[in-house]
Amino acid sequence: MKYKKKYVEVTAKFDTEGRVFPLKILWEDGSSYFIDKVLDVRPAASLKAGGAGIRYTCRINMVERFLFLEESRWFVEEILKD
């Protein structure tokens, strides 16, 4: 499978220590997905789509997904259709 970066709009919360926690992902078609829980936060590269930044391992609708914060933009790894 091939992947690409899919930049998405994210609603996030900043705590008093300056840490960022994503709360909701909004797709360009208007659908939105609430993040049930952030399981892990670490600097990491996207091995599938390229790029690097802060990788958030998130549980969304009981499925684990990676969400990346690359400088000031959020992206997910989108599967390219053949």
Rg is 12 Å
The rough form would be described as globular
Strand content: over 45%
Q: Helix content range of the residues, please?
A: under 10%
Number of strands: 7
Largest sheet: 7 strands, antiparallel
Whole-Å distance between the termini? 9 Å
Number of helices: 0
Q: What is the N-to-C succession of helices and strands? A: EEEEEEE
Identify the strand order in the major beta sheet.
3-2-1-7-6-5-4
Mean pLDDT: 94
Q: Uncertain spans, ≥5 residues at pLDDT below 50? A: none
Instruction: Give the class from helix and strand content and strand pairing.
Output: mainly beta
Topology (elements, then pairings):
Elements: E1 3-14, E2 20-26, E3 32-34, E4 37-45, E5 52-60, E6 63-70, E7 73-79
Antiparallel strand pairs: 1-2, 1-7, 2-3, 4-5, 5-6, 6-7
Brief descriptors of the model:
0% helix; 82 residues; 7 strands; mainly beta; single chain
In short:
The chain has 82 residues and is mostly beta strands. 0% of the residues lie in helices and 67% in strands.
